[in-house]
Design a protein that fits this description.
The chain is an alpha/beta fold and 284 residues long. The protein has 2 domains: 3-65; 70-283, 3-Layer(aba) Sandwich (Leucine Aminopeptidase, subunit E, domain 1), CATH 3.40.220.10. Helix content is 43%, strand content 18%. The chain has helices spanning 3-7, 10-37, 47-50, 52-65, 116-124, 129-139, 191-208, 232-249, 270-283, and strands spanning 70-74, 79-85, 94-100, 147-148, 156-157, 163-168, 171-181, 187-188, 214-217, 255-260. Strands 1, 2, 3, 6, 7, 8, 9 and 10 form an 8-stranded mixed beta sheet that branches. A two-stranded antiparallel sheet has the order 4-5. Helix 2 (10-37) packs antiparallel against helix 4 (52-65), helix 7 (191-208) packs across helix 8 and helix 8 (232-249) runs parallel beside helix 9 (270-283). It is elongated and about 85 Å long. The mean pLDDT is 87.
Amino acid sequence: MNIARDLCNKRFWRGLAIHALAALGALSAVLCLFALFWPDMFAGKGFPEVLVIPAVALLYAGCRSWPYPVAQHYTTPDTKIRLITGDLFEQDTNLVVGMADTFDIEPPDIIAINSVQGQFLDRVYRHDLSNLRQDLQVALATKQVVGTVNKEGNNDRYPLGTVATIKHQRKHYFCVAYTSFDEHNNASSTMGVLWESMDKLWDEVRSRSNGEAVSAPVIGLGQSGMSTVLPIQDAIRFLILSFVFASRQQRVCEELRIVIRPQDEKRVDMLEIRDFLASLKKSS
């Protein structure tokens, strides 16, 4: 948590002032009614007792304005979005793993070791390339190859938005292709492709997760080449919007958990994201 930064955020102080004044007004109105009907109740009350009212109002305002936890429950449909800082692979949920349209998995020359794909190979498959490759081939068996690319690694291309779902150790891993590799294994994507890929991802989660929660990293960072177009704050909002719109068509799952790496948290305005989640509830 970046508590010092959050306390310096104007959004925090604005929310604190609004909630404090609202609480103070409500408490004052209630006390005025008591004073009207039971005037003797406040006889002999002095300065220390009066301070209780603003203290309670300030405590209430602090609880309402504090940025943690960043979560929002929606009733139509019954689902929840939560933003946390932590390790994606320590979550007790199904996971989303972003991949390229060739579904390459070989580190370090093609896939970065510290990327989500690299960690997927290391943390889930214990660096067993052949086992992961076999599971991906099974998941892609019914998918149509739409082209080839002459490069190191895999050459067959699948449609962008293809989701290879792997069930491994009682978890579903939704491997979604939202970038395209060129002849030099450089990844690229566009906003339109990313949106369409997320739409197909939520369709797959809806049909395969049995309604269970799913955790996702911030999509569009890393090697995708989208970080200049879609900085992390916008990438989080983008992911939230895609999930909310898909959920309004038909419930996707019980919870979307967006997991931010600890080193990226300093670049995220948690208060703004929390307000953004709340605004989507009001507009539903």
